[in-house]
Amino acid sequence: MTIQRMDHVSVVVDDLEEAVAFFVELDMELEGEAPIEGPSVDRLNALDGVRVNTAMMRTPDGHGRLELTKFHHPELVEVEPAVAPPNALGLRSVMFTVESVDDSVARLLATGAELVGEVVQYEDVYKLCYMRGPAGIIVALAEELS
Questions:
Q1: What is the gyration radius of the CA atoms in the chain, in angstroms?
Q2: Global pTM?
Q3: What DSSP string runs through 49-108?
């Protein structure tokens, strides 16, 4: 058995509207929104009474998808530290290749996002940065320098 494709990455957020706006600033498109609940969702998550709203975001090329999920029930569970550093165990970041890191950073800063470190150039290959996005996730931005 082999993987056919990677379908999407899911991020749990506390403010779905704010998270959608953040990723729209990266030129992702809102593919759709839906409330999700029911016995099969409860069994899948091993939780009782799951009620969520989701927004599926799609990259402009149509190949990458990001699911944003807002839990209404059960309540969100905080992890410590709430804003994990780049060396924390688990999912590190979601990286996007962008036309201009500087333009993307300016647009995201206007949404309330923050730079984790600095915008740097890696050799003559990439301009890179990490931004703190919705729910504290790290969104990596890469501009190919060719």
A1: 16
A2: 0.90
A3: S-EEEEEEEE-TTSS-EEEEEEEEESPP---SSSS--TTSSS---EEEE-S-HHHHHHHH
**Cα atoms in the Cβ-side hemisphere of radius 13 Å centred on 53:** 11
List the structure tokens of 17.
Answer: 């509207």
pLDDT, tens only, 23-52 = 999 999 999 999 999 999 999 999 999 999
CATH number assigned to the domain comprising residue 16: 3.10.180.10
> How many folded domains does the chain comprise?
2
Question: ∠ at Cα 71 (68, 75), nearest 5°?
Answer: 145
Three-class DSSP category at 41: helix
Total length of the chain: 146
Residues 23/113, Cβ–Cβ less than 8 Å: no
93, amino acid identity: S
